[in-house]
Amino acid sequence: MADFYELLGVSRTADTDEIKKAYRQLALKYHPDRNQGSKEAEERFKEVTEAYEVLRDTEKRAVYDRYGEQGLKGRQGPGGFGGFDFADAIEVFMRDFGGFPGLEDLFGMRGARTSRASARKGQTVRLRLPLTLRDVAHGAKRTLRVSLLDVCEACEGSGAEAGSSPTVCNVCGGSGEERHVQRSVFGQFVSVQPCRTCGGEGRVIEHPCPQCRGDGRTRVEREIDVEVPAGVTSENFLTLRGKGSAGPRGGPRGDVVVLLEVQPDERLVRDGQDLIFELPVTFAQAALGYEAEIPTVDGTARVTIPAGVQSGEMLRLRGLGLPDLNGRGQGDQLVRILVWTPEDLTAEQEEVLRRLMEVESPAPDRIGRRARKGFWSRVKEALSGG
């Protein structure tokens, strides 16, 4: 693996804020949901997250700086690190960057690596929820149908056939762990791994339940309610704790993670909290000014196009944008003016424009109010036949 500092693109003297900022940029770049599930992006996402998880922690970073990655492997307790996989990477990212402050049931997953007992927790179920800009503007409530694993009714989640029960594993004595002593140039290390006989559960099922085949769970369809706060983006997640699949043989339920996908709008382009609408206008409308009706998130609004507006100019409609996720104000709607030049002219249109061309001033080097004043006077004279 490459050097952790090189992976994040930071110096060895970088502070925690620099490391966090660099990781966030890379994690968003390589997140699988932004790369159509690319395996290469998934691997890069895991690598940068692993690097971040080490360098953000003072003790792990000190061990890494002294001994390198090899010094972290197999260590237990403070500074320990090992077995880092993609699921861990997702949880680290959601823990530090997926949350919405002040709201319940949103990101903020485990703060440290799971203990052995939590390894039996049910899997996290991930759903995708498409949203419109109107949903973003006002928030939304949805009922989603999800397939998950629920407690088997026949064995009540034990995994054992009716009339029987699991027995204590005779290899680990019910601890669910096997200890292994390893020697290296750095000394002797004792690693603790899940028992290979019972899979870390400490129990063995001799007579599995025929309905769930010893798993303690069966697949069912459920409906869950999701409440989306106003102001979200496609980078945000919602976590419904304890709403996912039940853990095997009585383990705690996992979570449901809802991946938000704000759909593109045909009329409005989002720029943070602001919305942009492009309004094509004719030369006459731009020259003389007029009132136009434009689409907004909630319907339509009337906007006054000032006389003499230039192509590319922006008009601002305050408060018609999107709210900030954390309640810090409302965005605006911007109207970008695009002056349309006709390609096919009628004889009458061509005659009028030729008369205008005879009296109009040359275009100025720089567009400004003073340069346009005399020009618009000449336009009115030409159109009035003066």
What would you note in describing this structure?
With 386 residues, the protein is α+β, with helices and mostly antiparallel strands. The chain has helices at 4-8, 16-30, 39-55, 58-67, 86-97, 133-138, 283-288, 347-359, 369-383; strands at 125-131, 140-151, 167-168, 177-184, 187-194, 203-204, 217-228, 237-240, 256-262, 269-271, 274-281, 290-296, 299-305, 314-317, 333-339. It contains nine helices and 15 strands. A hairpin with a 2-residue loop joins strand 12 and strand 13 (299-305). 25% of the residues are buried.
Adjacency order of strands in the biggest sheet: 10-11-15-14
Task: Please tell me the overall pLDDT.
Answer: 81
The Rg value, from CA coordinates, equals 32 Å
Spell the H/E element sequence: HHHHHEHEEEEEEEEEEHEEEEHH
Morphology call: elongated
- Total of helices: 9
Tally the beta strands.
15
Instruction: Identify the CATH class of the largest domain.
Output: Mainly Beta
The CATH topology of the largest domain comes to: HSP40/DNAj peptide-binding domain
Give the termini distance in whole angstroms.
80 Å
The CATH homologous superfamily of the largest domain: Urease metallochaperone UreE, N-terminal domain
Beta-strand portion reads: 25-35%
Low-confidence stretches: 74-82, 99-119, 369-374
- Please describe the biggest sheet, giving its number of strands, its sense, and whether it closes into a barrel: 4 strands, mixed
**Structural class designation:** alpha+beta
Give the number of domains.
3
Helix content: 25-40%
Q: What attributes does this structure have?
A:
386 residues, 9 helices
